[in-house]
Design brief:
three-stranded mixed sheet, DUF721 domain-containing protein, 3 strands, GMP Synthetase, Chain A, domain 3
Length: 179
């Protein structure tokens, strides 16, 4: 008796709601579509052609996960960062390109307009690097790709300034070889 009484109270509540809706809007809601999900036009277009389950929801589809390296390569290619990153690789891996001993006495300064600028500790190391120039360019080309570095500018050590004090006489200054 209690179950039927609660059923009647629910039915009475629904009748009261329907009556109020009829009074306010002039129409009673259609409860036959109750539980169905309303989808906007955009959602329907996005779901068009996808498999759905018995309840109408789109089924989960396993996607082909790309590796991080391939995603990064695509992004680098798309943004045109290849040359900048290759220059950074040469700068950071100079010891791999020329060897540990030479890398201790040389330093990559910059890569500008496909020209790699390098400074050396002494004129002897600069001369040694100039004789190896073709091999270095070939190694860089193999590691980072062609047309990234096409020329090396090799500089000796920085020349010290002999100009001291406010008075100075024009002239060639001391005769010494710095590079």
């Amino acid at each position: 008796m209690n179950g039927q009484q609660s059923g009647d109270s629910i039915a009475n509540a629904f009748e009261a709601i329907r009556g109020e809706a009829l009074r306010r809007t002039g129409a009673v809601p259609d409860l036959s579509k109750q539980g169905q999900v309303r989808r906007t036009k955009r959602v329907r277009q996005a779901l068009r052609g996808r498999a759905t389950g018995p309840d109408g929801r789109a089924l989960w589809q396993q996607r082909d996960a790309s590796s991080l390296g391939s995603v990064m390569q695509e992004e680098i290619q798309r943004r045109g960062w290849r040359k900048e990153l290759a220059g950074g690789w040469v700068h950071g891996h100079w010891h791999v390109v020329v060897g540990e001993k030479i890398a201790q006495h040389t330093k990559v300064e910059m890569l500008k307009n496909r020209t790699l600028h390098i400074t050396c500790d002494s004129t002897a190391w600069a001369t040694n690097l100039r004789t190896m120039q073709r091999q270095i360019l070939q190694t860089i080309s193999e590691r980072v790709g062609p047309d990234i570095v096409v020329q090396l500018k090799i500089y000796g050590p920085k020349v010290p300034s002999w100009r001291k004090g406010p008075l100075h006489i024009q002239g060639r200054g001391p005769r010494d070889t710095y590079g």
